[in-house]
Amino acid sequence: MAVSKKEISECPIDTMLSVIDGRWKGTILWRLSAGPMRTGELRRSIPGITERMLIRHLQELVRDGILVRREERTVPPCVRYSISKYGMTLVPVLEVICRWGRRHQRLAGSH
Amino acid sequence: MAVSKKEISECPIDTMLSVIDGRWKGTILWRLSAGPMRTGELRRSIPGITERMLIRHLQELVRDGILVRREERTVPPCVRYSISKYGMTLVPVLEVICRWGRRHQRLAGSH
DNA sequence: GTTGGTACTGACAAATTTGTCAGTAAAGGG
DNA sequence: CCCTTTACTGACAAATTTGTCAGTACCAAC
Q1: Which pLDDT score is estimated for A8?
Q2: Are the Cβ atoms of B111 and A84 closer than 8 angstroms?
Q3: How close A38 gets to chain B, by Cα (Å)?
Q4: pLDDT tier at A111 (50, 70, 90 boundaries)?
Q5: Considering the entire predicted model, what is its pTM?
Q6: Are B23 and A5 a contacting pair at CB < 8 A?
């Protein structure tokens, strides 16, 4: 039985990573840290993601209290996602992660 | 075809996370940030990990230049892993991740 | 000569995650 | 009527990651 990172773990590193665990969650949060976005807008801004995966991840992030989903009951529907107050506590962490990533993305393998 | 996080991605968040991508890598690095350790010592310090997974992750981290493997050619063998100079650049990032994790691990679900 | 301890491999099974594809709803326009 | 748009579901296939299990090598001690 595979032990997924989603299970509760003693390790605080795992606790944090489990929140971003998912192929596209880091990127989604990164995009949303610039401000609220509509579903389709978000999808178009992330190359390679499929609508299915985007929605699955969005739902998990909403369930975990990281994102807020606001829906205008119009036709066609208009749904906007934004980072919750709780999710905002993650942003500085993402910034540090992002800074490391930017600094090392081209250098991979040169060690 | 599933797109693994290990592939090169434009997103710097993904670049960083791909280095820690693996069920136990964050924890392994966290343990080693306290100082070099032998394989078995590391295994005993991480509840739930199997020897197989530990070794697989260690090998990947060595391959990626994050860890250094030092072997004393004795019998029985004695192998010690430590964080490389390059890997050290990750430690501050792990610290921030860990701090968030510690602060929020019991509060999960309370939002 | 059998056992013990350490680090590690290979083959394979199980679990999990991701991706694909075909729908649904609902109002408005043609 | 049929088609469009937007957000979303369900069922299922494919890929990937994890876990299990049985070995290997080596020398020393018993």
Answers
A1: 65
A2: yes
A3: 20
A4: low
A5: 0.90
A6: yes
Rounded to an integer, what distance in angstroms lies between the CA atom of residue B15 and that of residue B7?
9
Q: Determine the distance between A101 (CA) and C27 (C1') in angstroms.
A: 46
Q: Residue B62: closest CA among chain A residues belongs to which residue?
A: A111
Task: Enumerate the residues of chain A whose CB falls inside 8 A of the CB of residue B11.
Answer: 26-27, 30, 101
- A88 has a chain B CB within 8 A of its CB: no
pLDDT of residue A59: 97
Q: Which nucleotide is nearest to B76 (CA to C1')?
A: C6
Mean pLDDT, rounded, of chain A: 91
- Residues paired with residue B80 on neighbouring β-strands, in sequence order: B38, B70
Quick one: pLDDT at residue B30?
A: 96
Based on C-alpha coordinates, what's the Rg of chain B?
15
Alpha carbon distances (Å) from A39 to A44, A65, B12, B71: 9, 17, 22, 52
The sheet carrying B37-38 orders its strands as B37-38, B78-83, B67-72
Provide the pLDDT for residue A35.
Answer: 97
> A106 in contact with B at a CB cutoff of 8 Å?
no
Which 8-state DSSP code applies to residue B27? Answer: H
**Per-residue model confidence (pLDDT) at position A2:** 63
pLDDT confidence tier of residue A96, bands split at 50, 70 and 90:
very high
In the predicted model, is pLDDT for residue B73 greater than 90?
A: no
Q: d(Cα A81, Cα A106) in Å, to the nearest integer?
A: 32
